[in-house]
Amino acid sequence: MSQIQLYSAILCPFAHRVRLTLLEKSVPFESIEIDLQNKPANFHEISPYGKVPVLKHGDNRVWESAIVNEYLEETFPNPPLLPTDPIDRARARIWINFADTRLFATTGKLLYGRDSQPAALLQELTEQLLFIEREGLAKISDRKPYWLGTELSLVDLTFYPWFEQVNVLEHFRGFQMPPGLARIQQWQAAVSQRSSVKSIANSPEFYLEHYGRLAQKI
Fold this sequence. Notes:
- There is one protein chain.
- The protein has helices at residues 13-24, 43-46, 65-75, 86-112, 119-140, 154-164, 166-173, 182-192, 195-200, 204-217, and strands spanning 4-8, 30-33, 54-57, 60-63.
- It is an alpha+beta fold.
- It folds into two domains: 4-75, Glutaredoxin, CATH 3.40.30.10; 86-217, Glutathione S-transferase Yfyf (Class Pi), Chain A, domain 2, CATH 1.20.1050.
- The two termini are 34 Å apart.
């Protein structure tokens, strides 16, 4: 059995970002798939929040994906996935926080909420993507391939799973990517060519099929 076990779910973008981090760092791990609609009886003993991902490293457990990724960064420092300069590291954390508290939070409300008028949430997503384009990639990376420049970082791995699954929002919620996202498109194309990304990528059809099944259960 691998020393590191990752409790994961195939549709969970937060688990996806941790898998990408482990792959980028070439850390061997055992992936344990959890059906979040039919959790094991003892799952709360593993995950106090009842969510994935949870990382088990020996006798220790770490949960919440952003914290898991920082734990991996500190425990397996090579290759580094955060800048060494304090202000650059702070900027990276700001964008990771933006992903979680804005982009993914709005997406969750749109996909799983009971709002009968989702137009406001669709507008929020549009504004968030334009903010990323304008205040993030266009200013920080200045046409370099990754979010923080020439080197891949946890910021890239945090955001990328959202873009891999965006067709779900387009199909089930009528979302349309706004025009004027040239830097986002360049960034997405660059990250999509990483071997780590390719090794666990799923097709648009895969996500549509599995989210369609999930919609029938909730």
